[in-house]
Amino acid sequence: MWTGHVVRLHHRQPKSCSHPSRTHFPGARTVTPEARLPDRIRLLLVDDQILSRGVLRSGLERERDLEIVAELARTEDVVGAAKRHRANIALVDADGPGYDSINVTTELRTSMPECRVVMLTTYGRPGHLRRGLEAGAKGIALKTSPVPQLADAVRRVHLGLRVVDANLAAETLTYTETPLDRGETDTLRAAREGGSVATMAQKLDVSERLVRNRLWSAIGKTGARTRADAITIAERNGWLFD
Question: Region Disordered: start and end of each range (predicted)?
Answer without folding.
Answer: 1-29
